[in-house]
Amino acid sequence: MTASVSRLRRLLQPLRPVLGPIWRRVRGYIDGADPLSIPAIADRASFLVGRAADRRAGRVRPIRPLRRFELIDLGMRVPYYRPRVVYLSAASRNAERLIRDHGLTTALELGPGLRPLIVGADVLDLRDQPDLEAEGRTIIHNATVLPWPIADGAYDLFIALQVFEHLGTNQAAVFREVRRVARHAILSLPIDWVMSDPRNCHHGLTEERVLSWFAPVVPTRIELGNGGHRKRLIYVFENLQPVAAASVQGEAGSLPEGAAAGPT
Asked: Is 157 left (phi over 0), alpha (psi -120 to 50) or beta?
C-alpha cells in the first residue's frame, strides 16, 4: 500500500503546479474553511433553524458564542481572523457547552480585539477600541490593577483568548481576580512558540508554566485549539471557587504598554 502511494505521488509530481491550487480551493469547501463549504452552510442552516425554534418557543438567550460560520465570515471580512478560525471555533464549542450545561446568562471578555467571541458579553479592555463590535458595555481598566471595578460574582463566564501572556508577571494574581468575578472561565494560550526575540511574551511558554498561574486550581479540561508550530491550548474551568476582593487587591503590577490590546 505504501509503495503504491509513493508511486502515485511520483506520477502526480509534475502536475503539482496545476493540481495544488485546485486542491487548496476544493479543500476549503470540504473542511469548512470557506463560507460556501458544506460544513459552513450546514452550520449556518442549523443556527437559523435553532433561532427560529427559540422564537416560536419565546426563548431568549442573553449570551451565545459566535458560530463557526460567523467566524469564517469575520475572517473573510478581517484577514487578521482568517488563520485564527480553528482555535476560535474550538473555544466557541466549549463556551456553547458551558452556557448550555450551566444555564449561563452573563459574560465578560478580556481584550477581545475587534469582536468578542461571546455575543452579548461585556468587555474589559485597557483602552477604548473605536472599531469594537460588541453588544455589551465596555469597561476601560488596566487588568493588572486589582481589584477590577466589578462586583464579586458579577459574571457567569469569563473569556480571555490569547491575552494572559500579555500580562507581564501578573497572571497568577489576575487569575485569582477572575475567580472573584466569574463562576466559569475559558482561556487560550500559546504553547511552545519559538520567537526570534526571546523577550517576546509568546516565546517559550510551556504547559507547566501556564498551569502554575492557575494553581492550586486545576482546569476542568484542556483542549487543543490548534496544532502546528503556533500551537494554542484551551483551558476550561467550571464551578470556580470564589476568592474575596481583599485577597487580590494590589497584588498585580502595571501592565506593559500595549498589552491586552487583542488576541494573538
From this structure: beta
d(CA 200, CA 196): 8
CB 143 within 8 A of CB 128: no
Residue 2: what pLDDT? Answer: 63
| Residue 182 to residues 56, 113, 222, Cα–Cα distance (Å) | 32, 21, 19
> 13 with 127, same domain?
no
Q: What is the pLDDT of residue 33?
A: 65
Cα distances (angstroms) measured from residue 48 to each of 24, 42, 52, 67, 143 = 29, 10, 6, 11, 36
Residues in contact with 29: Cβ distance below 8 Å, sequence separation at least 6, in sequence order? 36, 37, 38
The DSSP letter of residue 20 is H
Q: What is the pTM of this model?
A: 0.83
Query: CA-to-CA distance for 107 and 79, rounded, in angstroms?
Result: 26
Does residue 222 lie within any of the structural domains? yes
Claim to verify: residue 100 and residue 230 sit in the same structural domain: yes
Distances in Å between the Cα of 239 and the Cα atoms of 167, 173, 220, 262 are: 24, 19, 9, 26
Judge if the upstream peptide bond of residue 130 is cis by omega within 30 degrees of 0.
no
Distance CA 16, CA 146 (A): 57
Residue 26 domain-assigned (yes or no): yes
Q: Tell how strand 138-140 and strand 182-190 pair up.
A: unpaired
Give the pLDDT of residue 253.
Answer: 53
Residues of the chain with pLDDT under 50: 255-261
Are residues 92 and 159 part of one domain? yes
The average confidence (pLDDT) of the chain is 88
| Contact predicate 123/134, CB 8 Å | yes
Rg (CA), the chain: 21
